[in-house]
Amino acid sequence: MFRNLKVGGKLILLGIVFSLPLAVLLFLLIKEQNIAIDFGENERRGVEYINPVRHLLHDIQKHQVAFLNGAIEASALEKQIEEDIRSAQEVDGRYGKELKTNHGLAGLVEKWSTTKSLILRSSSNAKPENINSAYDDIVGKSILPLIIQAGDTSQLILDPDLDSYYAMDNVVINLPVLGQLIAQTNAHVADLILTHENMESKKQLISFLLARIEPTMERVSTGLQTSINQNPSLRSKLSLPLRTHIEAVKSFDDMIRRQVLDAGPNDFAKIDLKSMSANGLKTLESNYAMYDVTIGVLDDLLATRVGNFNQRRTVSLGIVSISIVIAVLFIISIGRSISRPIAELKEVTDRISKGDLSTFADIDRQDEIGQLAGAINRLQKTLQGSNKMKAA
Q1: Which of 204, 206, 360, 367 counts the highest number of beta carbons within 10 A?
Q2: Where residue 71 falls among pLDDT bands split at 50, 70, 90?
Q3: Whole-angstrom distance between the N-terminal and C-terminal Cα of the chain?
Q4: C-beta atoms surrounding 281 within 10 Å
Q5: Are 179 and 284 in contact (CB under 8 A)?
Q6: So where are the chain's domains?
């Protein structure tokens, strides 16, 4: 079958055969790039989901302190929390099924409604200790697990690059935990100042929370510094906010130890609760300012990575497409350079077979076809000489 094909067909067949490995390699390359693109896009969906939940976490923590202090901001924060919940539900409607967060968010909304009904609406009878326990339950059992769930199912937790991995680690785990430790410390200090009850046990609890803040802040600092070392372009974005936050947390720790843990029973009457709570909220704001910078850096890194993979895929397809076009043109050119002179030689030999010895093959080439044309022309001359001898 192969020997019966024309030259053009043979060249096309050879081109197809040699193109198959290239096609397979291209398919595998594009497949790997598509997997990387899908991976990065899924991570970005996780970041998009976590962002409104972060605002909900922050506002609930602010509401806790405002509620304990009897501040008028509590009712306004309550409305803001409802807005945060609607924002979280909106993004959950887009990605909740994929990220498997529907159940967690529904449980969070139900728990917040229950807390408002049982604790907040009966504030005159509620003890600060019970109020703090209710908020700790919402944050520790609903909000933080929801952030971790989104980080797990969006594959953020599996991020392959060190710069974005440590930014992710702070967005999903360290900074939310640090924020909760700061909020808990602030709330339990308010409890201690308001009630003056069980002072030693409550001081031990506050001391325990401060002891957890220090290593958590160290993990934040070490992780972000690793991101900067891996990607020096992040230095301008992360260094100053990180230094500012470290100083704020250290100042908060020093203030609590000096004014609360080292204070005697009679000293608590001199403590200004509003001033103390305001300093705690300032530290909390610093934490979420650091959070917003970090989540912005993380999303930028993921967007850049996805863009690079898209660019590589486009370049790969472009190179292969150009190569295919060049190969096709090359095959066509070779086919014509072989088929046309062969057709001319066939025409000359047909004329010779009919006795026409007047037309020579006009092919000036040095390859096998040129050698064949020269042999036919010599044969034609020989036949001409024979005919002249016969005529003589």
Answers
A1: 206
A2: low
A3: 50
A4: 17
A5: yes
A6: 2-8+318-391, 9-317
> Pseudo-torsion of CA 96, 102, 104, 106, nearest 10°?
130
Residue with tokens 């609406």: 121
- Extract long-range pairs of 81-88: CB within 8 Å, 24+ residues apart: 81/56, 81/112, 84/52, 84/55, 84/56, 84/59, 85/56, 85/109, 85/112, 87/52, 87/55, 87/56, 88/52, 88/53, 88/56
Average the pLDDT over 223-229 and give the result: 95
13: CB partners within 8 A, 6+ apart: 2, 5
- State the greatest distance between any 2 C-alpha atoms of the chain, in Å, as a whole number: 147
Residue-averaged pLDDT of the chain: 84
CB within 8 Å of 99: residues ≥ 6 apart? 45, 46, 49, 149, 150, 153, 154
CATH architecture for segment(s) 2-8+318-391: Orthogonal Bundle (1.10)
Burial class (CB in 10 A: 0-12, 13-18, 19+), 270: exposed
Q: 387 is written with which tokens?
A: 């005919």
**Token pair listed for 120:** 């907040």
At which residue do the structure tokens 């200790």 appear? Answer: 129
